[in-house]
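User: Please fill in residues for this 128-position structure.
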């Protein structure tokens, strides 16, 4: 008799991690903070939005959901890379960083998100 490990649905973890971290970043971007929120954003971006979302992606692989695995693990890596970039830029560890660098970063991610949106629409047969 084989023992089969069941994995709970990791999607709520991945979605909450993405959503909460995005909300915190938007508060910082809108200036609705005391100026110290960036530290919280970086911590959330590294661990909650980053590591836990990446873990949710790995659990999606184990659940044989390739699309969910690709989306969650990629967005987890996005949050970690964004956090490290902001930390290096704000901490003057990478003084050559410019707004152009951030623009290129977000444009590349914009292309990826557009591709995911198209795939999602095709998978779920949504008509725009």
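Assistant: Residues filled in for all 128 positions:
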């Amino acid at each position: 008799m084989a023992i089969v490990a069941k994995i709970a649905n990791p999607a709520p973890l991945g979605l909450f991690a993405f959503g909460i971290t995005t909300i915190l970043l938007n508060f910082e971007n809108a200036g609705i903070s005391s100026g110290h929120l960036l530290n919280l954003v970086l911590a959330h971006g590294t661990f909650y939005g980053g590591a836990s979302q990446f873990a949710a992606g790995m659990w999606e692989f184990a659940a044989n959901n390739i699309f969910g695995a690709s989306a969650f693990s990629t967005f987890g890596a996005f949050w970690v890379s964004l956090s490290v970039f902001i930390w290096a830029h704000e901490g003057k560890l990478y003084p050559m960083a410019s707004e152009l660098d951030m623009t290129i970063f977000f444009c590349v991610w914009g292309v990826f998100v557009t591709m995911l949106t198209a795939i999602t629409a095709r998978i779920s047969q949504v008509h725009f």
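For context: The chain has a mean pLDDT of 87.
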